[in-house]
Amino acid sequence: MTYERFEQLPVWQAAVKLGQQVYALTKYPPFRRQHSLRDQIERAAVSVSNNIAEGFERGTTQELLTFLYIARGSAGEVRSMLCLLEGISEFSNLKSEISNLKLEAERVSRQLRVWADSLQNTNIKGQRYLDDKVRNREKALRDRQEFLRELEQIRRGAAARGIPKWLQSHIIQTIHRKGAAEHRPSGPSVRACPVRRNLSQAFRPASARAGDLIGLI
């Protein structure tokens, strides 16, 4: 899935939730006498979502990676401070809340690590480097993947309606042969392909004659 805004990112949403929970925790009375601890953990919690957002908006993969690691470091700082709080007697009545927050911080850290690992293995430099040629190639690749997903939907729909396997295979292979040439990365978009307009017909009831099913392709 492609995200166009950082607000759509599941990891950013999780980081915001972490920050909200930290602020809910620091409202408890023990923090009134621990101003430095309260301020530090609040700043660290806010830093997680802010760095995800800033990295996303920078427009390059390398900068995004840098800010993801900073965000992960902030999530680790939150977790470290929660461990510290667990050992301070004044916060003994908040052990359950602190434990839940540690788990939440760990979840955010794991999501950031997975995302960063995936970016390490990509050849995409980032939005800032994309020209029209690159954008068109990326769009063609996405359209081809969507076309192949719809072929799989046809197969499943035909199987659910009791269409014989030999006919399922014939339909899929024929559509694929006709559509493949028009859906290569350098070719036109799948949305312009006449084969796509006929995809829904493969979901006709099982009572439809085999000749009609073959005829649609």
Please, could you describe this protein's structure?
- The protein is an all-alpha fold and 217 residues long.
- Helices cover 68% and strands 0% of the residues.
- It contains eight helices and no strands.
- Helix 1 packs antiparallel against helix 4.
- The protein is elongated, with a radius of gyration of 26 Å.
- The C terminus is likely disordered.
Task: Name a few traits of the molecule.
single chain; 217 residues; mainly alpha; 8 helices; disordered C terminus
Summarize the SSE layout with pairings.
Layout: H1 10-25, H2 35-58, H3 61-86, H4 95-120, H5 132-160, H6 165-180, H7 194-197, H8 210-215
Summarize the structure.
The protein has helices spanning 10-25, 35-58, 61-86, 95-120, 132-160, 165-180, 194-197, 210-215.
Strand content: under 5%
Helices and strands: which structural class? mainly alpha
Average pLDDT over all residues: 79
- Described by its quaternary structure, the protein is single chain
Q: What are the segments in which pLDDT stays under 50 over at least 5 consecutive residues?
A: 185-217
| Fraction of residues in H or I helices | 55-70%
Count every beta strand, where a strand is a DSSP E run of 2 or more residues.
Answer: 0
H/E order of the elements?
HHHHHHHH
Total helix count?
8
Distance between the termini: 30 Å
Shape: elongated
Report on the biggest sheet: none
Q: What is the gyration radius calculated from CA atoms? A: 26 Å
